[in-house]
Amino acid sequence: SKLVDLASYHFLSFPHLSSPHSSLFFSLQHSGIGGAAAGKKNRTWKNLKQILAVERTLPWKINDPNYYSIDAPPSLKPAKKYSDISGLPANYTDPQTKLRFTSSEEFSFLRLLPTDAVTGYLALRKATCIVP
Amino acid sequence: MTSKTDTTCKIFSFQDYKSSPDPIFEIAAECLQPSPVPIIIDNGSFQTRAGWACKGGEIGAPRLLFKSVAARSRGAARSETQIGNDISNLEPVRWLLKSQFDRNVVVNFEIQELMFDYIFSHLGVVTEGSVEHPIVLTEAPCNPLHSRQMMSELLFECYRVPHVSYGVDCLYSLYYNNALSNLTPLHTGIVLSSGYHCSHILPVINGRLDAGNCKRVNVGGSQAASYLQRLLQLKYPGHLAAVTLSRMEELLHEHSYTATDYHQELEKWRSVEFYEQEVHRMQLPFSAKGLGGVVSVEERQERRTQQLRRLQEINARRREEKLQQDQERLDKLLTVQELLEDGYLEQFHKNLVQLNMDSAEELQSYINKLSLVVEQGRQRLLQVIIGAKISLCQASEMEQPMDEGDGVTEMDPDFSEENTEIEKPVQPVFNMAEYHQLFVGTERLRVSEILFQPSLIGEDQMGMMETLQYVLARYTPEQQEALARNVFLTGGNLQYPGMKERIERELLAMRPFQSHFQVMMASRPAVDAWYGARDWALENSPGGAGWISRQDYEEKGGEYLSEHCASNVFIPMKIAKPVPRPAETLLVPITTMTAASPDSVSASPSTVLAPTQT
Is the ipTM of this complex over 0.90? Predict the structure, then answer.
């Protein structure tokens, strides 16, 4: 199939279209549901949380599948611990920074880290403490 | 730079792929005759694939493959939005990128409309006011009714599509691969699919999705990419800007793998020789500014010199002004003196009084002093000008080698020798090339592991295999056996090398001793969903089962789904119609519920409750 140049696409195929940026010609055509185009521009869209909140209120039966019921449950197995720096299995945790490490070299490296790096590593596994 | 590392170590550079804009295809005749051919759209949260439902060759492959992103800066007109491959490099516009997805569900239908416009115009659909072709679209497993309703509304009312069919992408992929391997369509198996935002475990019993036992783990390619990005940014704080998401995706696609036994593999990485051999060194382009702590000394000195220069400039300007003022004053005094010489005594005396002086002698002394000051000022000015010229010459000599340094984009191992030519303050000699390398070692392994152990990123959900075990436990042993015999892997995020072996090993661990299982990977995990949808459309003509016609939409509402072998399960439930827009003709919202109770009706915030209820 022939590839048509964008410019010729405008002027050969649609001589009646006056506006230059008619690659989105549909947005001009389905002004049909005229309010739709304008309505869509300004309306705020519900995000997933809001949609799910509304959906929860519908009269589902116990075994009906819906989006939130198929979420996997929390894990039954205890989480394995890995070093925050190298990723190797970690046996030790630094009581001061709560970072995990495997060897004494890692420990000395840990202690020299600036606080923002420490918080960064903890945030990576969502272990930052919110309570001041 | 020692030469021994050159032979055995692996140095890579980032490809930084740039996408080129898609051409606008002309519609082929076979897509219009005898009846409009369906358009197949695999609407993925990472990538959208679109094409025609035709057999064979070029037209039987997806015409458009583009990232599902739109870049629109605030206040820009709608026509200035760039979509997909129009954006050659994602990084500069990273903050403007929007997607129609929230996790794996479409929520933003304005952007979805832009995507459809893009797809239709690039496929060559030229009919005005409507799209004559039926559409096959993928949706999330157990897609929320609201989302489907909005999508149907968009397709039927905006684009006036005649027929629409929704299906689950993993199931289309299964359909395609079953046909490839000649399995009966009514078979039983379990689908493990991992996408960009989440991964699904979908059991299929006798050819139909067992939706009640499906499970979803909210870990996918995007979590892996952002995990890798943060790991590398924490490891290399000096290269914060160079560690971009696009580069992370490149690392995921080309440099990561999955360990068959995670702990065993990690033990291998403990040894230094293994590390040296297996670490992937990503060479970053050289940049003179990015020298972190070393430059801070230099920066401080530079700042000091700049401040000095500024002070000097200010002083010079003040001196000039003062000089000018003095000059003016001197001129004035001189004119007054001339008055005296020319004999205009009264005016002279008047001016003297104005100037606060008593006699001609005082005037004279004043003039002498001022003229001295002016002379001195002029001398100083001349000196400054000459001094500035000299320093300018010196600076221009200095800038020459610095410019050449900035021009080097690829780091050469030999550069460290050239480096010493550029004058820098005292600092330890260090390997410039290695400074600009990112060492990706255990990270190669850890990123794909988050699928199996979400606790690595702090998610408390079960990993994919644990969820599979949980799902299997809900069946009888015979059903479990049947399901485990046909484990099917699909989805872009399962394309890591070693993924199949890992899953086989985990299955071996969880299944009873000496039971049989078989794992099959899709032939092309990322695009097979599109091919499956295409084959389904070729075998099921519009108007038959599995298609939603315009009439169905109007009678049964937007959330209606016509089930077929690769679709979700539809639980008939009427939801409130969205708020009618002002320009439309008045639509009384229909809020019938299967269990009519005023409480549940009032709980849904999207309705405008009219007092007249049916």
Answer: no
